[in-house]
Specification:
1532 residues, alpha+beta
Amino acid sequence: MHSTDTMLCLTVVLLMSWTLGGAQKNITWEVQRYDGWYNNLQHHSRGSVGSRLLRLLPANYADGVYQALQEPHVPNARQLSNAVARGPSGLPSKRNTTVLAVFFGFHVLSDILGTEKPGCPAEFLNIHIPDGDSVFDPAGTGDIVLPFQRIHWALETGQSPNSPREQTNEVTGWLDGSSIYGPSHSWSDALRTFSNGQLASGPGGHIPRETDGKVPMWKALDPSTGQGGSRGIYDLGNAWGNENLFLQAVSIAWFRYHNYLAVELAKDHPSWSDEDIFQHTRKRVIATFQRIVLYEWLPALLGAPVQRYTGYQQHLDPSPSPEFVAAARIFLASMVPPGVYRRDSSCHLQNASSSSDPFPAVRLCNSYWSRENTGMQQEDVDDLLLGMSSQIAEQEDNIVVEDLQDYWYGPLKYSRTDYVASWLQRGRDLGLPTYNQAREWFGLEPLQDWTNLAPHSQQKVLEVAALYANNTGHLELLPGGMLEGDSLLFSTIILDQFLRLRDGDRFWFENTKNGLFTAEEVKEIHNTTFRDVLAAVTYSQLAELQSNVFVWSTGDPCPQPQQLTTQLLANCTPMTVLDYFEGSGAGFGIIIVVLCCLPLVSLFVAWIIAVLRKRDFKKLQKKKASVRREVTGEAVHAMEWHGPKTDSSFVYIQLQADKTLKVLDGRGSVLRSVSLKDQQRMEVILSSNKGNKALLLKSPKEYDLVLFFSEEAERSSFVGKLQDFMKKSCVELHVSEMKEKSLLKQAVTQEQRKQILDTFFRHLFAQVLDIEKTDAGELNFESSQKAKESLTCELSRAEFAESLGLKANSMFVDSMFSLADKDGNGYISFREFLDILVVFMKGSSEEKSKLMFRMYDIDENGFLSKGEFLRMLRSFIEISNNCLSREQAEQVTESMFQASGFQDRDELTWEDFHYMLRDHDNELRLTQLCIKGIPEVFKQNVHNRVSFIKKDPRGTISDGEDRNLNTVTRNMDQEGQELRKRPGRKANQYQLHLYTEAQRKKYQQNRVQQKIQEFKRFVENYRRHIVCVVLFSAITAGLFVERAYYYAFASPSTGIAQTTFVGIIISRGSAACISFMYSYILLTMCRNLITVLRETFLNHYIPFDAAVDFHRWIAMAALVFSVLHTAGHLVNVYIFSVTPLSVLSCLFSSVFMNDGSQLPQKYYWWFFQTIPGMTGVLLLIILAVMYIFATHHFRRVSFQAFWITHHLYVLLYVLVIIHGSYALIQQPRFHIYFIIPALIYGADKLLSLSRKKVEMSVVKAELLPSGVTHLRFQRPQDFDYKSGQWVRIACVALGTTEYHPFTLTSAPHEDTLSLHIRAVGPWTTRLRELYSPRSLALIGKLPKLYLDGPFGEGHQEWHKFEVSVLVGGGIGVTPFASILKDLVFKSSINSKLMCKKIYFIWVTRTQRQFEWLADIIREVEETDRNELVSVHIYITQLAEKFDLRTTMLYICERHFQKVLNKSLFTGLRSITHFGRPPFVPFFDSLQEVHPEVHKIGVFSCGPPGMTKSVEKACQQLNKKDQAYFAHHYENF
């Protein structure tokens, strides 16, 4: 097996050799890979980019796995740094090691070590600064914490004690020139020019090219200036090559050396290609680099020669160890000086530039990531290299200069940090062994006594010992190695590492078996020193450099003037703390406000559209309205002032010949009339300032008229006309003047008049009904003048009519006003009104009948003629818009005269009139006035005259009263109220024994038991709804909890939960809920599917009738989660905007690359420059538009706007898919929820679309009264439907393709389909106009329709209940028209029906509104031989008007039914009631009539108010332990 692997590896190597080398005829060796792979043919990845560090000793972690040792187990890193490394600078190296050797060493480390990359997920070992630290906490706050991020590790490690965390190396672990050419082939290609084998250079050719982002160079901020960006950062092989000016200079030297050799090779071999030259040069540079490191630099650094090379050792692992990583960095750091000299080849020192005084050297602390050296010249680099070559480094001891210890470039938002403390923390991050463990491993004696550690510095040793509790076994590797006087441990670790690197490298230049170099070439390489390199790449000559540039000896050229100390150099720029969110608060707040205002903006747009639609609708109605008469040219135009808080209106003033002043609006409609017939004097007040434009006409006993004219001339002209008019009318006109402000203050406005009348009526009723003053309203708050006005004011005819809710020209008002106006002055005083009100409120039936007799005894001869009786009846009929013809009124008159035995009389005395009303004495007694302003105390005693079904003791179903309810009167006419008990027909009676056993036993319960019973009934009644809502809510909550838990505790370690815990939980949990809800909400709109499923067994478990309600519920819940999702992301965006780049690159590795700048993207980048951000904002806009336009109000005002905006759901789903596809935080998951509902919805939609394409020819179009349009059109083939179902239609002839829902009024057995559509909105109004005779005459044919449906709803289940109640209001009777037709047909063919009884309640303002339904009911009455249907008609127009007339109409109706067995109003045998149906007592009586029935179906369709009343009645009765009322209603 081993030989097979070896052969495979050799094959791979040969193929690579041919690819990289064989393809070039002048490359005859195996080209070393850039990424370090396949150096070792047995262990291919050894030393490669991303390989693990080699642990020499077991990991020293707190838990043995990955948790680093921290306080209190180890000392505070800053305290330990101060104890170990604090000391004066200026001590020279013991071996005269030059500064060049130090920074060359850092360059060497960058070639074999790349451990600076932060780990992911981001973990921190922050350094707590002790209180009062002189550098970092001079104020002594004690809350300074320097962030320290752990480095990258192999994710497969750190899972158990058997596999502790192991860090990775992000560059090759070989001395292969990766610091020159980069750790990858692509990196190297980015550095090349691909011309003559050279590396790309900037202007002049001596400096590398400034980075342009193609090479991932580290771009940390300049801590001294805060500058960042690419300026001053050069493309090098090492990402950290620009860390400081001195390391940068060494890197540039090797860059130059490559180009120098490439030029030489190109001269010697002009036929070679670019690749030939580049690879030959690279090979030679790497070999030279290897030789200098091992045989020149390392001996100079350690002070000892390196043993000779004995050959390649394949089984030796050369991987860098964690011990070497830390030891080499700290060892070199102890030799770093506080500054570096610059000199030329003549040994002249160059002063460092400064804003103030010149300094002899460049300060190290101000040279990190410097952006000041942009446009660097060759001389700048040469001066630094030459200066470093002759400057002696700091002593190899434990002292570290303050430039590193206090002013090293800082992490994250801190510009400075402690180098020593950071590497102490890094050692703990690496899990380094203790000092004694390391010494034992390398064959050195462990430390037994603290005094043996550093005899030269006992004071520091004692400080360190105290920090470790005097336990030598706890002493860590780095502080122990630093305190050694001879640095033996560090030297041993460094030497061991480089020997392993040399001996384990197959491509080592001395390995003759790799075919890289001949023996002569190896010898030549051995003779090349770094002095030769510097001489080749700088302007200096060999003679101007010492023989070993890493060591300075006495007699060498250019000695340094003195050892540098910090006192000789410029001060270090102090630490600053960056605020990543600085300057972003206002913009971020504005975005939040804008997002919150999106619904308001959408609301404003919707309001504008609603206003425009209403305006268009009014224009459309104006076209249909009769043309108003033109305003005569004699009218005077002005602006009428209504009060200080009311807008003025444009009016015309006409002076009529009948002594009347009329105020008209712009269309000529009369707004008010001021009669001058009974006036002797009128007063006019004119304004005397502000342009003299105001005029006040005092109107006695009414509110005043205030007019504003355009100019004084117009006012003067009007006053002249008024004076002439008054003169002709024999009325004195008094004209006076006052200031405009006083004029307006003196004017009695309409609002003030209303307040006066309100007080008038309150005290009027207080006297009549003996109501307490507190209920009537006190007068104390008013002035005595106002109180006097209230009680002495008189009502005009218009005000009197308005108080009764009638028109001023009504016959009834005329009769009543004439009777009440005793003094005949044209006004009714408080006393006159009181006299007539007392009769109606407290009078007997005789007094009331006598009052009525006097009202209509016009000639006051004491008799009521037939003509006057007819006039009385017609005045009653006015209230219902003259619903009876004159012939019907005459028929009623004759019938009533005949029934009372007065058929031979032409006149009636009062006694005869009262006798005629003998059977209705009780009704007359209860008759009262319905007057505006009546106190609520009195209203509680007003009874609506309604009836309901009841089973009398004899078992007969009849109309009666509910004695437990205040809103119902006693039975008015037992004989007339009996349901279906008509002459010639069998009374509908039930046998008592059928119900005796089923009667529920009634018992008293306490309040708690009642609530429990109500709750049980609620659960029983809505169990299907509850189960569905609970199940859906549970799934939603489960999804939220699952995602929240996943990202909080179980997600892959990205660190996002640690970064934004609350934000990520809210945003991810709500995102899952949104995905689920917005997906499955589609199922609630699958009308075809629901129509099919409602006929299956699933209807017993799922309330399909509530699909639309469930749709709204899901939509509102989804909106809540959308808001939560947005709020979560607002939190996330803020946190991400203040999170350093090193953390963001972990969270979003596909978006961010950590380049060291640590600057995060601004908040607006997240909103407007990312796919999730932009789509998220668009989604919020779409949701705001969709939800606002879907509200009930805007849906009714502009259905077209609702239709269009709701179709934005297509764009909504597209954006949701795009929103999640970016995978910023997680992989897309929306499709998991969306696919199945989308497929079902798509199939349902395709089915509808296939039907929508078929045109339906309209067979008949008829315009019915009350704005109803009757359309009959052909029935499509295979169109099967049930009574009560609905369809959607569109009419292209209207210029729009929007579909509107309407219930079918045709029955399933009919050959055609029919609809009855009421014109209540723009679309239906235009449809009615389209099918009007005038439009059809222009078109020449009936426009066609497009049909979609049928769709199921609750009304189609009417036949599934033994007892069904159908409640139709207004145009909502359309489904019941279909049901009643279907019922008649099934009864005629003796079809089996489960339904045994149907109650149809028709609620209408007047029977003339839907006379077409009366024809259907009439047909039902004729064919209903089994008395299956009971019809009750409620005319609501009489409900809140003058109760006297309602009573008289009621009397006439009962008389008509008694005599002719049909309704006076409808012509039907069905009972007609006046007022609104009392649903609660009606349903309650059904429980008594049908005690054996456990479930009664209630089906309502009509105005929302009526539907809600039915729902409340059902809910109220369902609380009782009796029959359950199942309410079904449909909302479109």
